[in-house]
Design goal:
- The structure holds two protein chains of two kinds.
- Chain A is an all-alpha fold.
- Chain A has a domain at about 75-240: MetI-like fold (Orthogonal Bundle).
- Chain A is about 75% helix and about 0% strand.
- Chain A is built from 15 helices and two strands.
- In chain A, helix 4 runs parallel beside helix 7.
- The longest helix of chain A has about 35 residues, at about 5-40.
- Chain B is mostly helical.
- Chain B has one domain: Orthogonal Bundle (MetI-like fold).
- In chain B, helix 2 crosses helix 12 (about 250-260) and helix 3 crosses helix 9 (about 190-215).
- The radius of gyration of chain B is 23 Å and the shape is globular.
- Classes of the chains: A mainly alpha, B mainly alpha.
- At the A-B interface, helix 1, helix 4, helix 5, helix 6 and helix 8 of A face helix 1, helix 3, helix 4, helix 5 and helix 6 of B.
Chain lengths: ~290, ~280
């Protein structure tokens, strides 16, 4: 009879160990970014051969120098503005394209509706690494090389399919009767959608805004391919390319930039996680 | 109402997709707008190139190894996170972070961890006495260690994604099913094999599909960690296509390399359709 509690205790310890181990693995690079961002250079650049110097802790008092450099002497603030402006325009384009499309797909019945929605979802599988080559030709024909417009034209290629799919799911969950009753009361079809369906779909639309924005902030390949002027770069393109001067890495400022960009997005993802999963699971979970 | 979205997708996804295929059959280059058809010359040149062969091999190795690890760890982690425990919310938040962080910035964090002089991993290995005198790991300057580093970053990044999808799958299995299996006398193992795994299959394949597509077509991790080096030994298809087609300006050749991503993507697309159809029936 002594076996069961012991086994339960063993299971408990194993469970905590698994959680602890994976959390440590997930978090370590961020911890490392954080400690690097606030360490003095003398504390930072001690070779790893020195076993007396523990790199996991502050051996000298922390400093805000790297943050000061990042915001005062680098183009990080410019990149932040670029990213947010491009993000805002892309979000607007995405909403204009996906809200009507998501609604239409949700209300389209029969084979065609289903085929179209799956077709749109499949375009999400087409990777940037296949498209950047034709896009580079297209941009030189349009004269948009090294222009923020190139990114504004291209970024909806990944926001539109995913967001259409997300919104379709949202509109499907709204009963048709809502618009029908509004139409009985004398609304036009467009009026019924505008006054009844859209306000009810507000959470879905908010999700789309958040995800389109975070996808823009995360994007790296197109940004690297199409923007060559340092002043025009986005954060995810500028930090890896232009914060590194020649062979000299300013690790303190670099890690500060990585950390303060990543954490807000992580918070947003966490809040919207369940809706986001719904967009990926393609109805494999009912 | 569908027209604007469809028109955009046709113009900027479908057409460029076709253009990618066509460009691979031309001598198009970044310098000039003259383009002429050269048949399969790019493909012949590419296939005979040892750097390409290595990149093709690497792409499959990276994808396979990292996805096996991700699915294995993801199952363990998802089950652990299904239980109730104190601090679960914060644990979930922290575990999700690698997926949320912009890939280029997260990879920079790893670049610093793998730094040849200041690598914290080397410090630990030295302190615990794993390194003999004078022994040292140049993580990104060695083909094997470089591949280990790249796989580590891929696993780190994809694990949260698979875990949350698997959690969605696990929580979709009704409690009655487990109860029924218990009443029928099923043990832990047989329950896992006859109940959980079959019921998880659709969702497991979703996690795998996206994991494969994201890893197989990614160039950010390789580009930022090793630039394909040392001696082009850690390139993948996507990073090689970028190096030749965009940086090198040989558009036709870059397109030909990128086309090799297609067969796997097509297989994945067909599998996605199957899964979604089966889920519709169930």
């Amino acid at each position: 009879m002594r076996g069961a509690p012991t086994r339960r205790l063993g299971g408990l310890i194993l469970h905590r160990a698994v959680i602890l181990l994976f959390t440590a693995f997930a978090v370590f690079p961020f911890y490392w970014m954080a400690i690097t961002a606030f360490k003095q250079n003398a504390d930072l650049y001690v070779g790893a051969t020195n076993t007396q110097h523990n790199p996991f802790i502050f051996n000298q008092p922390p400093t805000l120098d790297h943050l000061r450099i990042l915001f005062g002497q680098t183009l990080y603030p410019t990149w932040l503005v670029n990213t947010l402006v491009i993000g805002a325009v892309v979000v607007a384009i995405t909403l204009v394209l996906t809200v009507p499309a998501g609604y239409a797909l949700a209300r389209l019945t029969g084979r065609w509706g289903e085929r179209l929605s799956i077709g749109i979802f499949l375009t999400y599988l087409v990777p940037p690494t296949l498209l950047f080559i034709p896009f580079s030709r297209l941009m030189s024909v349009l004269g948009l090389q090294n222009s923020r417009w190139a990114l504004i034209v291209i970024y909806p290629t990944f926001t539109v399919p995913f967001c259409t799919w997300l919104l379709m799911g949202f509109f499907k969950s709204l009963p048709r009767e809502i618009e029908e009753s509004a139409m009985v009361d004398g609304c036009s079809r467009v009026g019924a959608i505008w006054r009844m369906a859209l306000p009810l779909a507000a959470p879905g639309i908010l999700t789309v805004v958040i995800f389109a924005m975070t996808l823009v902030i995360q994007e790296f390949v197109y940004s690297l391919t199409f923007i060559s002027s340092v002043r025009l770069m986005t954060i995810s393109g500028g930090v890896p390319v232009a914060l590194v001067r020649g062979d000299v890495y300013y690790w303190g400022s670099l890690m500060a930039a990585c950390l303060i960009t990543s954490v807000p997005i992580a918070v947003l993802y966490n809040v919207f996680l369940d809706r986001f999963i719904a967009g990926f699971t393609v109805g494999a979970v009912k | 109402m569908l027209a604007p979205a469809l028109a955009y997708i046709l113009l900027l996804v479908a057409l460029p997709f076709v253009a990618a295929v066509l460009l691979s059959l031309t001598n198009s280059s970044a310098g000039s707008l003259d383009v002429s058809f050269v048949g399969f010359r790019n493909f012949r040149a590419v296939v005979g190139n040892p750097v390409f062969k290595r990149a093709l091999w690497n792409t499959f190795v990276f994808t396979f190894v990292s996805q096996v690890l991700v699915i294995a760890f993801g199952n363990i982690l998802a089950r652990a996170l299904m239980r109730r425990f104190r601090g679960k919310t914060i644990a979930r938040f922290l575990i999700l972070m690698p997926w949320a962080a912009p890939i280029s910035l997260a990879t920079l964090g790893w670049l610093w961890i793998f730094d040849s002089t200041f690598s914290v991993i080397n410090w630990v290995l030295k302190v615990v006495g794993y390194f003999g005198p004078g022994q040292w790991y140049y993580w990104l300057g060695d083909p094997t260690l470089g591949m280990v580093a790249i796989v580590t970053v891929h696993v780190w990044r994809m694990l949260p994604f698979s875990t949350v999808i698997l959690i969605a799958g696990l929580s979709s299995i009704p409690a009655e099913v487990h109860e029924a299996a218990d009443i029928d006398g099923a043990g832990t193992l047989s329950k896992a094999f006859y109940v959980t795994v079959p019921m998880m299959l659709p969702i497991l394949s979703v996690a795998l599909l996206f994991g494969v597509v994201f890893t197989f077509t990614d160039m950010s991790v390789v580009y930022l960690l090793t630039r394909g080096g040392p001696f082009n030994s850690t390139h993948v298809l996507a990073s090689l296509a970028f190096q030749d087609g965009v940086l090198g300006g040989d558009v036709g050749r870059g397109a030909a390399i990128a086309i090799f991503l297609l067969p796997v993507l097509v297989v994945m697309a067909i599998l996605t359709l199957r899964v979604s159809r089966r889920a519709e029936v169930a």
